[in-house]
Amino acid sequence: MTGKKTKISCQNCGQTNYYPENPGSKAVVCGHCHHPLPRPGEVIEINQVQAANLINKSSLPVLVDFYSNSCGPCMIMAPVVERLAQRRAGELMVVKVDVDRNPELAAQMGITSVPTLVVLHKNVERGRISGAISEMDLALWVARIA
Ligand SMILES: [Zn+2]
Predict the structure, then answer these.
(1) Which residues touch 24 (CB under 8 Å, ≥6 apart)?
(2) pTM of the predicted model, to two decimals?
(3) Mean pLDDT throughout 88-104?
(4) Residue 28: inside a domain, yes or no?
């Protein structure tokens, strides 16, 4: 990701920003709400309010990894999801939600098992998958819908 600015949606308010190529040592913050922005390709943990903002407003599709710390397959999927986030930086926002800490959001989203990955864009669900899948299958699935 060099040579151009990378699009990134604020995990706090959902506003899409351009992440500078060479941010130096100063924190990069959202132009709208001044919340620090994640680095492009970074998987960030979000809460219910942030999820609603991101899902409603992000100009980039959002992949939400619903997980639990007590779930073995979730731990297997975490690095796979992180590598996907790196590869799709600037095209797709990848975030994770701990279902144990956000039970209301999980219920609202109809999450019945973890890990469940849901891709949404402007409040429209594009698809979801549950359970651990291979890195290749994940990449192909996401490429079809986001
Ligand atoms: Zn913001």
Answers:
(1) none
(2) 0.94
(3) 97
(4) no
